[in-house]
Amino acid sequence: MSPHLAETTRVSCAAREIAFVSELAEPLVIDVDTGIDDAFALLYACAHDEAQILGVSTVVGNVSLAAATRNTRAVLALAGRGGIPVWPGAATAMSIAAKDASEIHGQTGLGHAVLPEPEEPSDTLHAADSIIAAARSHSGRLILCATAPLTNIALAVMREPELPRLVKRFVIMGGAFSEPGNVTPSAEFNIWHDPEAARIVFRAFGGVGGAPVIAIGLDVTRKTIIDESDIAAIESRIAGKPKGAKLTSFLEDASRFYFERMEKTIGKRIFTMHDPLAIAVALDPTLVETRRAAVDVETAGRLTTGATIVDWRGQWGRLANAEVAVAVDADRFRRLFFDAMAGLAEGAGDRTQSRLPRSDL
Ligand code: BDR
Ligand code: CA
To answer: What is the number of structural domains in the chain?
Structure first.
């Protein structure tokens, strides 16, 4: 047995888990503010063997940092992946006057769902430093996906300006490019919650040799919608499977809250799959069509703070820093999502990944 494997095995035994580190899997770090759709995104990622989730970093956004961290731990445990490290990060945004999204996600962040208290402790190293460590040790290979305000990523790129050249791909759920916003007429929640951080991130990525920001904004996420008939279809598909019952009650209870809120706010009982689409694109960029352009963020508008401004016509004369998603294969994405839930119910997540030694990040 190689020393590396011996170490992995020892650590995993301590965590009472079976080591699983596929050599072919792509290293993935997810930054979340777990909320309902972040939870669905985490479940999606956990169902995919082609991703080796090195860790999940958490940030204030939909709910407080503490609630986001707890929810993340609980959802990973539900997926049978309780050993994945969780790295708490920023408890406050860089910008002032942010408010949470508990109106949409509920006081706990998971709607009507109640999950068991997670057992695993969270890591003590700050999310930004953990992201940097992961990017350095998987230089040129790491996929980084943020489904939350960009505070942790901004802190990471301020501490390690090479980050855009260390990652293979950087996908965010964020922005409203040719669509109205969802918090204000011009701003999408993740950007609006911390526009200063978003501006730092957009200005740091792209350019010469740097990964661009692959921006999955409302323009495409609003095309990936599920409703209660889809939840019912998933439920009948996973009924009787080893983890079908637990997963069913989570999907049902979490999404019901979202349907209720949407009915109140826009009059339709729909669930927009913002964060699951971003994760799906992180694993398979062919799901969306993108246009390369320069993007910047309004941080001091009287009406437009948090707006993502895209220079489609090259009027700024700046290098492109983003690939903005403009179209999505929504049918294929929906099928992938349903298949992922079916896989999880079969126990896809159960070949639990060991808690990797920090040296292996
Ligand atoms: C984004 O805002 C949050 O409420 C969701 O989790 C998603 O990341 C959508 O605008
Ligand atoms: Ca989110």
So the answer is: 1
* Ligand 2 center from residue 174 Cα (angstroms): 9
- Nearest ligand 1 atom, CA 275: 8
**What DSSP state is assigned to residue 223?**
T
Averages of pLDDT over runs of 10 residues in the chain (361 residues) are 35 34 81 98 95 97 96 96 96 86 90 87 90 97 98 98 98 97 97 98 94 98 97 93 91 96 94 98 98 97 96 96 98 97 85 50 60
Residue 101 CA, closest ligand 1 atom number: 4
Domain limits at 143? 3-353
Note if 48 is an active site residue: no
Q: Residue 209 is part of a domain; what is its CATH number?
A: 3.90.245.10
| Any domain includes 307 | yes
Q: How many CA atoms lie within 13 A of 280 on its CB side?
A: 29
What's the CA gap between 356 and 233, in Å, rounded?
A: 36
